[in-house]
Amino acid sequence: MNARSRRLMRPAALAGVLALGLTACGSGDDSGSGGGDAAPVDTAAALEKGGEITVWAWEPTLEQVVADFEEKYPNVTVNLENVGTSNDQYTALQNAIAAGDGVPDVAQIEYFAVPQFAISEALADLGPLGADGLDGTFSTGPWGSVHSGDGVYGLPMDSGPMALFYNEEVFAEHGVEVPTTWDEYLEAARTIHEKDPKAYIANDIGDAGFTTSMIWQAGGQPYQVDGTDVTIDLAGDEGTTTFTEVWQQLVDEDLLAPVGSWSDEWYQGLGNGTIASLTIGAWMPANLESGVPQGKGKWRVAEMPQWEAGQHATSENGGSSLAVPAASENAELAYAFTEYATTGEGASTRVENGAFPATTADLESEEFRGAESEYFGGQKINEVLADSAANVVEGWQYLPFQVYANSIFNDTVGQAYVSGTTLTDGLAAWQEQSATYGNGQGFTVNK
């Protein structure tokens, strides 16, 4: 799932998401869920028996996956429904769970939101259904993101390892070398804006997903979760400080275009060269091709700049899983579809239709890595992007109420882009408000 699809959810709409099953969770164990005690199942038998399942998802490549799946397994009917994107779907899913009616058998859930649903026991543990045998199938970042405690609460559908997408024509015009470190990136930002005051190296008006991804790449671990015990330390976390020290300079010197991503102005800037680069997830190429056709032949992809020269650390930005709600009455068949859609034939179909894979087999294949992109001037961009997927820093955790935390980002950290406050002050406010919410939802939050 890419960032374009994300919308902020009002805090009031989020309040019930955690309350559903939180009181049933032990403070040190979040592994119990609807599927957690299920015996191993024979998915082949479930497919032969057939039946009907409902899938809630907004990702367009699933349409072909569903058609292929139904053709291969004629006894199965899959009802693919788009009930909203990202947070809109999460609200609908929570409402259905609370009402005990209309819960889908499979739901698309972004990685940052998986913990929130897992700890409330809204999702089945897919381990006993077959996911325990999938170690090594997916790249490190997505596979780690679908785990909570000892459970597996989704199968990775795609991934978003970060890379630097840049307009080679603009860089060459201003004599800027592709930055390999964030210090070089800062200097490149200064050069571009000095030579053309209308041009910026990037845009940024505050984005929670981007900020956490940057902290992740810097080795930060500001969130620590053990069941319902949560620690939030954005103030003392070294990775967070590393990020803010550089990014605050970009903000203070007005080196970032004050333009929101996915807006008309943003697309125009990417097309006319006034926004010269993006540090973003590997799902971005299809968006550039469709949204910035005038950039064809001008754009290239490079490794994400590093916090220390010589390193090759990356992080994830975006991406979704397919999960089976605990309330599904057809969990075996739901899992069979989920596995098909995320591994093997289904994964290959989605890659062929433009999705960026989370499966190691696809990421390592010569055909995938060697594909030349006409839009990117014939560059084999998948070599860069697949290497990025392999270099994702391990150990990152999201909050079990990250959906809510992200919804208040612009009211806290985002103020640093429009007022006199600093990123550090904004992060402190974000930490405080997130902790208050978490404690109110039954967590024990340390900070």
Automatic annotation (TrEMBL):
Residues 1-26 form the signal peptide. The keyword Flavoprotein does not apply. Gene3D superfamilies: Periplasmic binding protein-like II. Keywords: Signal, Transport. The keyword Transcription does not apply. Belongs to the bacterial solute-binding protein 1 family. This is Extracellular solute-binding protein.
